[in-house]
Amino acid sequence: MRKYERKIVLEDSTMKIVAENGMVGLSMRKVSRSSGVNESMIYRDFESKEKLLRACYDSVNDYFTEELKISIERKIESKESFLDSAKELWNEYTELLIKSDYKTLYYCEYRDMHKMYMGIEDVGRVNESIAGYNASSDAGVPEELNLEKIKAQEYAFQFFIESATAYAKKVIRKEIKDTDENRKLTWLLLCQGIAQ
Questions:
Q1: Dihedral over alpha carbons 22, 24, 26, 29 (to 10 degrees)
Q2: Residue 108 in contact with residue 169, Cβ under 8 Å?
Q3: What are the residues whose beta carbons fall under 8 Å from the beta carbon of 173, sequence distance 6 or more?
Q4: d(Cα 62, Cα 146) in Å, to the nearest integer?
Q5: How confident is the model over 16-66, as pLDDT tens digits?
Q6: What are phi and psi of 27, to 5 degrees?
Q7: To bridge 97 with a disulfide, which of 15, 18, 104, 196 should be the other Cys (CB 3.0-4.6 Å)?
């Protein structure tokens, strides 16, 4: 197995173990058994458990961010209203998270455990995704008002991401059913929260 193939297998096994058992349930021995890769080879590729965990997070975060950027670019081109676009984006992103089941659970587990230590760049990569949307509607707006609008939209966007992630996590864990009614209710609550 080539190094890049081995890294994919190791990251996948790690995410599945964490999704099932949480961070506390992870050991390099479990990753070795699950992946079929010798434990010393895992350390050679990643040096430590922490570096393996971060590589998994970076991989899934990059995937989610890229998919979201693609969706946002489609919405910018469609010229729909902001609210209609946001609702469609929320549904698309929620669907992506649900389909990515164990990767989503890993993503949530890692973020929850490391939230206070994570740098602003982790949030910034997702916030960059809305820059194009901001630029497309800001011609002729004074800079100070534009900055306030961008801050408000970034806050709303983070709220948007967090609600989609929380909803998907509950669906994956079978705490709620993914129904049109539940999505509609969650969207209404999200809109009320943003309006506050």
A1: -150
A2: yes
A3: 105
A4: 28
A5: 999 999 988 899 999 999 999 999 999 999 999 999 999 999 999 999 999
A6: -140, 155
A7: 104
Q: Which residue pairs, CB below 8 angstroms and at least 24 apart, start in 2-11?
A: 3/45, 6/37, 6/41, 6/45, 7/45, 7/46, 7/55, 9/35, 9/36, 9/37, 10/35, 10/37, 10/42, 10/45, 10/46, 10/52, 11/52, 11/55, 11/56, 11/59
Torsion, Cα of 108, 113, 116, 120 (10° steps): -40
Tokens of residue 181, six digits: 């009614």
pLDDT in tens, 105-153: 999 999 888 765 555 445 445 445 444 444 444 444 445 545 566 566 6
